[in-house]
Amino acid sequence: MEVIARLAIVAGGIAGAIGVAASARASHGGGENLAVAAQFLLFHAPVLLALAALMRVSLVGPSAGAIVLALFLVGLSLFSGDLAMRALAGQPLFRMAAPLGGGTLILAWIGLAASAFTGEKNRGG
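and the corresponding structure tokens:
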């Protein structure tokens, strides 16, 4: 569990940093797609940090935490990555990357909600 929680912290920090950089670039003519990509990264960075904290206090179990983390990372990479590629390179990451990433983010949020029942502190009461 410790490794997954630490990975969530690292991912949250990286998502936040890229989100700030993308937001700054978008404000200087990067376009609406880049601004949306930055917003998604910035909105989800605290969620990744919260996931680490929830795992650390055993409210979210390690397996569920790992799955939720993976879903958030894949979803953010596909969704924000596709929008950033469109803005900066003029082409998509690949066909349907943004919708696939968005759907994966929805699954991640549902997984996070379901993970409330997986931690050690949830088993006895």
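(Above: one complete record from the training split.) Helices lie at 2-30, 32-56, 62-89, 97-114.
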